[in-house]
Amino acid sequence: PSCFGYPLSIFFIVVNEFCERFSYYGMRAVLVLYFKYFLQWDDNLSTAIYHTFVALCYLTPILGALIADSWLGKFKTIVSLSIVYTIGQVIMSVSSINDLTDHNRDGSPDNIPVHIALSMIGLIIIALGTGGIKPCVAAFGGDQFEEEQEKQRTRFFSIFYLSINAGSLLSTIITPILRGQECGIHTKQRCYPLAFGVPAALMATALVVFVIGSRMYKKVQPQGNIMIQVSKCIGFAIKNRFRHRSKQFPKREHWLDWASEKYDKRLIAQTKMVMKVLFLYIPLPMFWALFDQQGSRWTLQATTMDGNFGAIQIQPDQMQTVNAILIIVMVPVVDGVVYPLIKKCKINFTPLRKITVGMFLAAMAFVAAALVQVQIDKTLPAFPAAGQSQIKIINLGTDAASVTFEPQLKTVNVTSMEWTGYIPFETSQLHSLKIISGNKSISKDIQLPGGNRHTLGVKTTAAGIFAELMLDNVTSKPEEGNNLIRFINNLPDTINVTLGDTSFGALTSLSGSNYNLFPGGRKYYVAVTRNSMTCSFTSKSLGFGSAYTIIINECSEQTSDVTYSEDIPPNTVHMAWQLPQYFILTCAEVVFSVTGLEFSYSQAPSNMKAVLQAGWLLTVAVGNIIVLIVAGASKLSEQWAEYVLFAALLLVVCIVFAVMAYFYTYIDPNEVEAQLDEEEKNQVKKDENLHEKQVEADSRM
After folding, report:
1. What domains can you pick out in the chain, each with its CATH number?
2. Which of 251, 313, 396, 569 is the most buried (most CB within 10 A)?
3. Which helix (H) or strand (E) element contains residue 25?
4. Residues annotated as region Disordered (predicted)?
5. Between the CA of residue 699 and those of 70, 208, 676, 687, 695, what are the distances in Å?
6. pLDDT digit string (tens) for 642-693?
7. Strands of 560-568's sheet in order across
């Protein structure tokens, strides 16, 4: 049965892939946060395990291809590993149930190792499942087409890639929302069980959908495991070549021809084709090393940016969906508009040229990311180094004051209700301060711990000059676009301050509170209680990633007078500046990924396709490992420099690949196969003729 010229079975395969990718990307979207907040691991461990898991998911396809080709066939492999996969997702969901070990019902698990063990088992099973299925599904889809449906097959790979991205797009939007819900039996927590449970349910759906289509599939019988044969053939050729290394043996045309003593011509010819393509794969992992940093580095970059898009507030981790949205738009555009235009211009845009362009674009995307990072770095405050201290002076009074840092370091004048920026000092040189205001003066010895910021509150009253030095205790800009807020009480009485649900406690006259962390990009409701009378006000919007000192000068039922002093400026570089790098990287992905799958398929004999599919996915695994190595080995303190490093590495690799591609000659596997068939036929005829002649000769005797 067919539909729009496509085999009907294709629709089941595409739906299955959609559900499977939804399940995988959905789980992956919340994984790092689950490690960090639920299993209570630090950032480095979480990131390391995350990248290791992704690498593992792309290493297991080799196993899947082995099982499919030599033992179960693609259909049964997909079904049985989907069952394994679903079990893994369920285990993952169970591992995140807080009430599992929370016997004292305090809202946090009592026995973390149980959860760690369960989730690691779950992840390993998932990696087995997703990896095992991966090389089979695309190839199984390709199997459904007849020889003459080349055009439909090409279109199928585009649709297939689209379904992958539709699945990943929806799940990257939906799963974090599920995670944000509150759920639990005895105490309410972030809802990880739901965030992992929905992917599990979808995986089960994928399985059911796939089985329903069973009657329609064209199932190619497994033709023995080709990978083992290929490996043996290569191994034997190398061994044999090594044995005959002396000059007296004649050279052979290709090093694989040394296997001809033991293996037939056809296998050797096919292995040559596979090796030719696999050789081209060597430079590809570098592309994935850059591509997969969207989830790690680029998201961290977004946390230092301003996500205010007018009506909506974008969270840093939601920027990743830009890639999936763009892919869905770009694949049809590139397929239907860009490639035909290039063809019209009489340019032969071969698959390998497309891949080269993809690599170049990915490097450019990282250059763009580095440029954005440089802009961000300009807005980041300079915090004191180990032997330094910084002091900010706030004049809370109505008279101007002059502060001298002794011994003779510098003198600063501050007018009424004004403040200075943070003034840097070498901690060891600063011993005391002298404050003069009007006709009064005061001296104060100070000893600072070093490596920190301090705030000096100064106020002249009838009783004399008041001065208090507060420790800021902030050494970095607030993470994830949160804001730090503290209050200074500039009233004669003690007050109690609450912001939203957070109480800052009692503040005595002219004292300051500690900083508290609040989500950014909104206005806050502040209530001040003074002598059992409450006044309230709504703060101005403090942006993202800022630190403010709010000075309360007056607070009665009729009026409130507050001053905002900016300690750390908010993120000023807008998240929209990430759009160019996402756009460039998505263009890179469209020309690189879609083409790569298709190219692998077109250059391999029919029975070798799973081998190449696995090889392609292997490049992704190696790419993730490269991230771990480069990020670990390069001791670059500047993030922009790391981006430039990755871009430079990829450019070098891109040039190497271009040279390799230049020397590559395209082949048509079908022609090679036909030629081999022809030769075999002739050989058989020859043998028959020989046999007949032999018989004739025998009869004459």
Report:
1. 1-224 (1.20.1250.20), 264-378+574-667 (1.20.1250.20), 388-568 (no CATH)
2. 396
3. helix 9-33
4. 678-701
5. 47, 67, 34, 18, 6
6. 899 999 999 999 999 999 988 888 888 888 778 888 888 888 888 888 888 8
7. 516-518, 483-489, 547-555, 560-568
